[in-house]
Amino acid sequence: MNEMADRFVAGVKWVISHRNLPWHKVQIGSRLEYRYRLEPPRNATEAFAAADPELDAYLHLFLINRGVLITPFHNMALVSPATEVG
What we know:
3 helices; globular; Aspartate Aminotransferase, domain 1; 3 strands; alpha+beta
């Protein structure tokens, strides 16, 4: 799972970099979260300020239409043994 997650994260990092998005990702093993800010939030106030409900809704719809399901909170992708990375 972690190897697949590493491949997935590499793709996400590429998109963030090449689109010059002010986002970052946090990976812990096979878990990946997206944040809409350059630096990781240091507390709940910063995390709340970085939220964008409209962008969340768009990202979820965009991904689900491509067969990728992320959690409805934290924009979290969880890679499992059933995950296929193209």
